[in-house]
Amino acid sequence: MQNKVPEVTIAFWTIKILSTTVGETGADYLAVHVGLGATLTIAITLSMLAASLVTQLSTRTYVPWIYWLTVVLVSVVGTQLTDVLTDVLGVSLYTSTAAFAVLLSVIFGTWYYREKTLSIHTIVTRHRELFYWTAILVTFALGTAAGDLATEALGLGFSLGVVIFGVMLVMMGVAAYLGADRVLIFWLAYILTRPFGASLGDLLSQATEYGGLGLGTVVTSIAFLCVIVVLVFLHTAARVRQSRISST
């Protein structure tokens, strides 16, 4: 089958960051404002993610709307996994961050042992795609735990969290420009976009007394979802145009 992951461009990173923000605000909206609670929310979103993954795995090529819908749902589920561990089971953010980091290392180690590559440009077999989505889910959970650890447990706050994780992302870009290993930089940046997006989502949605701008989870989620839909639509239209040009 063809490579199932889009090209890594500015649009890719923009949609990725927006999806992480939607994961943070969307999960909070369902669990708190709708009143579903963490357990019921993760049960519903897991079912939606399972359906989306089945659709994604059944395709033979990259389909933008299916791929990015799956990413958004993975973001929500990844957020909920950390929230359930922290709020329901009482697991320390230090413990969950370390546990997810170890789990991600095991996934990458197993993936590399079997396939001899971690490059997203080679997701052309079912095994690699399964490794890819498993790693993606754990990066979201790890990013959520690390972000909550920094902004809440360590008391950095949402604004400072956005700045710190934003600077770290810029450093990843500079490292890639200077010739650092692109695969390593990609995965480090992928992890960092989660706490950056989550901090941004909390900054925009949380009440002013908690250090946010008070826009609310509904407004923030809808606004970012609309931008994601527009970007995915434009990306799809560009692929269709390119396909027509190639066929002629």
Summarize the structure.
The chain has 248 residues and is an all-alpha fold. The chain has one domain (10-247). Helix content is 80%, strand content 0%.
Please, could you describe this protein's structure?
The chain has 248 residues and is an all-alpha fold. It has one domain (10-247). Helix content is 80%, strand content 0%. It contains eight helices and no strands. It has helices at residues 10-33, 37-58, 64-88, 93-115, 126-153, 157-177, 182-205, 217-247. The mean pLDDT is 86. This is Membrane-anchored protein. Keywords: Membrane, Transmembrane, Transmembrane helix. InterPro entries: DUF347.
Which structural traits does this protein have?
0% strand, 248 residues, 8 helices, mainly alpha, globular
Total number of β-strand segments?
0
Count of separate structural domains: 1
| Helix-strand sequence | HHHHHHHH
The main pleated sheet reads as: none
| Straight-line distance between termini | 23 Å
The whole-number mean of residue pLDDT values reads 86
Give the percentage of residues in beta strands. under 5%
- Assign a percent range to the helix content: over 70%
Structure annotation, total helices: 8
Radius of gyration, whole Å? 18 Å
Report the uncertain regions: none
Which structural class do the helices and strands define? Answer: mainly alpha
Shape: globular
List the helices and strands and how they pair.
Layout: H1 10-33, H2 37-58, H3 64-88, H4 93-115, H5 126-153, H6 157-177, H7 182-205, H8 217-247
Helix pairs in contact: 1-2, 1-3, 1-7, 1-8, 2-3, 3-5, 4-5, 5-6, 5-7, 6-7, 7-8
Protein name: Membrane-anchored protein
Keywords: Membrane, Transmembrane, Transmembrane helix
Organism: Paraburkholderia hospita
